[in-house]
Structure formats: C-alpha cells, structure tokens
C-alpha cells in the first residue's frame, strides 16, 4: 500500500482516531466525551476503508457511531442526578502505568515479530464474501449471535422495567 | 513511504492503551464503558489489518470475526447500560468509587 492517497488517508485518519480518543480522556464533560468517542469510531471506520474492508466499515458506522454511542447518551441522560464530570478515581496513576506498559508491550511485539506478509492486492468487495461465509461456514455462530442479541435485548428491557423489584431493593 | 501492517498494529496498540486507561481510571460508569468500546475497536482494527496483509487461505475470515465481535459488543453495551440505569435508581449515582457496598 504505497500510493500517495492511501498513505495520506492513513495518517490523517490515524491522527483523528488517536486524537479523538485522547480527547475522550482529557475532556471534562461526559457528553462531550461521548461526542469525541463517536469521532474516534468514525476514524476507525475510515481506517477499515483504507484496508479495503467496506462491509466492516459500514457496520462500524451503523453499530458503533450510531447505536452504541446513542445508548451511552441515553444512559447519561437517564441518570440526571449523577455526576456529569469525567474525572478519574484514585487509580489514575497505576492505570496510566499499566496502560503505557500494555501499549508498549503490544507495540514491541508487533514490530519485533516476523509476520507472514502476503503481496496480494486489497479485496474487490467483501460484502458478498462475508455474507456467503456467514450463511455457509459460520452459520451456527451466526444463529447463536442472533439468539444472543435477542436475549440481550429482553434482558435490558427486563432490567430497567420500573416494577422489577427496585422498590424492595431500596429498603 | 508506504503503510504496512506494523503501522496498523501500532495504532491498535495505542488505541488499546487509551481504552485500558479509560476503563481502569474513569470514575463514571459510562466512561468505563467508553474505554471498553475503544478496546473492542483496537482489537477489531488489528483483526482487519491482519486479514488484509497476512498470508491466509481464507483472508476474509478475519472480517467475519469482526462482525461477530461487533454483534457481541452491541449486546454487551445494551446490557451494561441497562445495569447502569438500574444502579442509578437504587443508589442515585453511577460513580464506580461510590458503589462500595461490598468494600470492607
């Protein structure tokens, strides 16, 4: 991948993604943090496109930038007396050390390992190939995933139903 | 100048580190969840990068796995945020350092 457009796109998208993720850490307002998280998700979707993964990129925008972040905004809005700040706990320093350690280790391993690089071109289009794989080789995980989604949806509804025993738990 | 597998892996490592820091250090439960989602994204990015660059008989399988990860992450986000709302109803806060009933 050495044509100039791809290189420029990669560096710009990488800067957007990492910068937005850092802003999620820095920014002092929870709603703004979610907005920056959406920007980071969109940057990752752009990176998928530079890797010629079109279907995954569209899924990323639909599920992450669309659904998951809206769920997070709902959770913030539904907790009105909660703290809207984005502060850290007393675990801030150990967490920073551990995160740096993990990132350095992963980065070192990624650079040090000899990967079996292939010289094949990017995929033409992946939606049909993924669709065939999902209904042929991976049909059982696919069905289990749909059951999982159904269970998660029902579980979320049952958990937040007002009459689900909260009043007894308050005593 | 070209973009190789290592670039994407390093980017994934940085994103994973940021997500880990968020998940461990943030005080608000939604902030913790944001960190977990960022870690999912970092892992998905490495999956897609490997499926693009590395020698394999079925290169698209990495992307199929990413689709499954996104599915499970959506289910996880829905349940976790429902738990956050329930917790808020009971305790009036979703700060993880104030949910300390089990603390000795």
Write structural notes for this entry.
The complex is a heterodimer of chains A (171) and B (104). Chain A has 171 residues and is mostly helical. Chain A has one domain (4-137): NADH-ubiquinone/plastoquinone oxidoreductase chain 6, subunit NuoJ (Four Helix Bundle (Hemerythrin (Met), subunit A), Up-down Bundle). In chain A, 73% of the residues lie in helices and 0% in strands. Chain A is built from seven helices and no strands. In chain A, 29% of the residues are buried. Chain B has three helices and no strands. The relative contact order of chain B is 0.13. Helix content of chain B is 74%, strand content 0%. With 104 residues, chain B is an all-alpha fold. Chain B has a single domain, classed as Orthogonal Bundle (Helix Hairpins), CATH 1.10.287.3510.
Summarize the structure.
The complex is a heterodimer of chains A (171) and B (104). With 171 residues, chain A is an all-alpha fold. Chain A is 73% helix and 0% strand.
Please report the first level of CATH classification, the CATH class of chain B. Mainly Alpha
What would you give as the CATH superfamily of chain A? NADH-ubiquinone/plastoquinone oxidoreductase chain 6, subunit NuoJ
The tally of structural domains of chain A comes to 1
Number of helices of chain A: 7
Succession of helices and strands of chain A: HHHHHHH
Largest sheet of chain B: none
Structural class of the helix and strand makeup of chain B? mainly alpha
The major beta sheet of chain A can be summarized as:
none
Low-confidence stretches of chain A: none
- How many extended strands of chain A? 0
> Helix/strand-derived class of chain A?
mainly alpha
Note poorly predicted spans of chain B.
Answer: none
CATH C-level category of chain A = Mainly Alpha
Number of domains of chain B: 1
Q: What average pLDDT do the residues of chain B reach?
A: 90
CATH topology of chain A: Four Helix Bundle (Hemerythrin (Met), subunit A)
Q: What distance lies between the first and last C-alpha atoms of chain B, to the nearest angstrom?
A: 57 Å
- Biggest interface, CB < 8 A: A-B, 92 and 79 residues
- First-residue to last-residue Cα separation of chain A: 63 Å
Residue-averaged pLDDT of chain A: 89
